[in-house]
Structures are given as C-alpha cells and as structure tokens.
Amino acid sequence: MVPLKEQDLGRLKEFTDRAIGTGYYSNEEIQDIFQRSTPDGQPQKMCSFLLKRDDEIFGVRFTFPPGRWSHGKGEGLTPSRWPHTLSETGYFQSLFLDERVQGQGWGSKLSLKAVEVLASMGAKGVVCHSWKESPGGSSTKYLLKMGFQPIKEHPLYWQHVDYNCTRCLKPPCQCTAIEMYYEIPRGK
Ligand SMILES: CC(C)(COP(=O)(O)OP(=O)(O)OC[C@H]1O[C@@H](n2cnc3c(N)ncnc32)[C@H](O)[C@@H]1OP(=O)(O)O)[C@@H](O)C(=O)NCCC(=O)NCCS
C-alpha cells in the first residue's frame, strides 16, 4: 500500500475505466483527485492510497481531507444528520479493488491508512456513498465492519454521471448509494 504519487496518474485511468466503469473519471478528474487528496498540496499529508504490486495497480482508495470537498459524484448529501460538520469531515471518494484481490481485507486496510492521515490533521469523521448493488454487497459489508453507520439511501445516485457502470452497462446508472458516516475515534 502506497500513497498516491503524481507518476501514478497516467496509469490510473485504465484501472478506473476497468474497475469502476468506462468514463467514470476523465484524465482531468484524476488530476483533480490528486490535487484534492492533500490539504494545500502537502505531499506528507496524502490521503489517497494505492494497492500496487510490481508497478501494477490492484486497488485505489481516493480520499479528500476536510475543506477539500463539498459533494460526491452524484446528488445526495445530508450533513444535518451527521455527528460532525462538513468542515470537520473527510470524504471517501472511491474504493475499488481488482477482482483478483477482493475479499482479502485490502479494502479496510487501505481505508484505515487514509483514516490515520485524516486523524493526524484533526478530522473528526469520514463520509462516503456506499454502492448498494456492489458484487456480493461487498461495499456496505466492509464499511459496516469498519464501523460506518448508514445515514440515508439515495436511489439513482449516479444517474447523471455519463459512464458505463459495470452493473448497468450503459447510462443512466440505476444503482443506489447509501450515505454512511464513520466517527474517527479520539486519539487515533
Ligand atoms: C468493496 C471492496 C473495496 C471491499 O474490500 P475487500 O477487501 O474486498 O473487503 P473484505 O475483504 O472485508 O470483504 C467484505 C465482504 O465482501 C465480500 N466480498 C468481497 N468481494 C466480493 C465479491 N467480489 N463477490 C462477493 N462477495 C465479495 C467478502 O466476502 C466480505 O464478506 P463477509 O464480510 O461476509 O466476509 C471490494 O470488495 C471491491 O472493490 N468491491 C467492488 C467495488 C466496490 O463495491 N467498491 C466500493 C464502491 S462504494
């Protein structure tokens, strides 16, 4: 597991097209994710991580620190139901693993690395949009195991994202997002 670096960006689009769906991220959005993964471009505070072996990308955990995000890819966010404010909360943007390494706990390991960095900058919580229809319910299962609490369901969350969802195959995506919140334990 390694922090995201600028030299990885060129190979990330091929991975996100395959794992998330063609067109989910453009090259410009991947550049933007890199910029927004740190507060003010400090490389020692990189919140996004990759799972890499022999230079091959096997997983991504994109994460934004508080103050560097205000919404996800789709529509639906309810800060009024969170235990902490938007300005105290980081965002888990996307976590995707290659099929060959799913079900081995890497999702939680990558996410805990990101939580460590968020905690070091004083974040009080993390919010995410869990993909309800993920294979075997893997998304919600790993989040519940980590201690995330469901906040609200958002049907058709990704309907306005012009991409080929791996489940729906063509736009518009019919999937549902479950907004979930994790309170970072004090002293972490
Ligand atoms: C979601 C994901 C990141 C979780 O990471 P992970 O390392 O696989 O998580 P875990 O090993 O803790 O597995 C979580 C659960 O999902 C199950 N699971 C994982 N991958 C699975 C798959 N492809 N098919 C069926 N079940 C799967 C595991 O058996 C485990 O179930 P259990 O808690 O009943 O034992 C990863 O499975 C993945 O990339 N899934 C597809 C993409 C996705 O849904 N991303 C999240 C979008 S919000």
SSE topology sketch:
Elements (H helix, E strand, L loop, with lengths): L1 E2 L5 H11 L1 E2 L4 H10 L12 E5 L2 E9 L24 E9 L8 H15 L4 E7 L6 H9 L2 E6 L9 E2 L11 E7 L5
Parallel strand pairs: 5-6
Antiparallel strand pairs: 1-3, 2-8, 3-4, 4-5, 6-9, 7-9
Helix pairs in contact: 1-2
| Approximate helicity band | 10-25%
The portion of residues forming beta strands comes to 25-35%
Radius of gyration: 15 Å
CATH topology-level fold name? Aminopeptidase
CATH class: Alpha Beta
Which structural class fits the helix and strand makeup?
alpha+beta
Strand order of the largest sheet: 1-3-4-5-6-9-7
Q: What is the molecular shape? A: globular
- What characterizes the major β-sheet? 7 strands, mixed
The quaternary organization reads as single chain
Structural write-up:
With 188 residues, the protein is α+β, with helices and mostly antiparallel strands. The chain has one domain (2-183): Gcn5-related N-acetyltransferase (GNAT) (Aminopeptidase), CATH 3.40.630. 24% of the residues lie in helices and 26% in strands. The chain contains 4 helices and 9 strands; from the N terminus they run βαβαβββαβαβββ. Helix 3 links the parallel strand 5 and strand 6. Helix 1 packs across helix 2 (27-36). Coenzyme A binds at residues 95-97, 102-108, 130-131, 134-136, 138-139, 141-142, 145.
